[in-house]
Amino acid sequence: MRIRTFLTFSIGAVTGAGAMYLLDPDSGEERRRELRRDAFQQAKQGAVTATKAGAELTRDLTTAAVEGYQQGRADATGGMPST
Question: What global pTM score does this model have?
């Protein structure tokens, strides 16, 4: 039970410190702006990475499908490649 209490206290302390850091009347607006900018940059980079990975996967699947089709055609013609 003590670990749960300590964990709850720690989460509350971190949340409070984060809120205090971002809601600071002197520098909070600049910090929020920087946090927002960094979050958008990370999201953009993640989208670029996901797009590249998707394109690579599409290319690999297309290649495998073509190779499978060609293998099936070769098997259907008795191993003789069609011209």
Answer: 0.56
Burial class (CB in 10 A: 0-12, 13-18, 19+), 31: middle
Tell me, yes or no, whether 82 lies in a domain: no
The confidence band for 30, taking pLDDT boundaries of 50, 70 and 90, is very high
Instruction: Specify the number of domains making up the chain.
Output: 1
Tell me what pLDDT residue 19 has.
93
Instruction: Write down the residue that tokens 């702006």 correspond to.
Output: 33
Let me know: does 2 contact 9? Beta carbons within 8 Å: no
Residue-range definition of the domain harbouring residue 10: 2-76
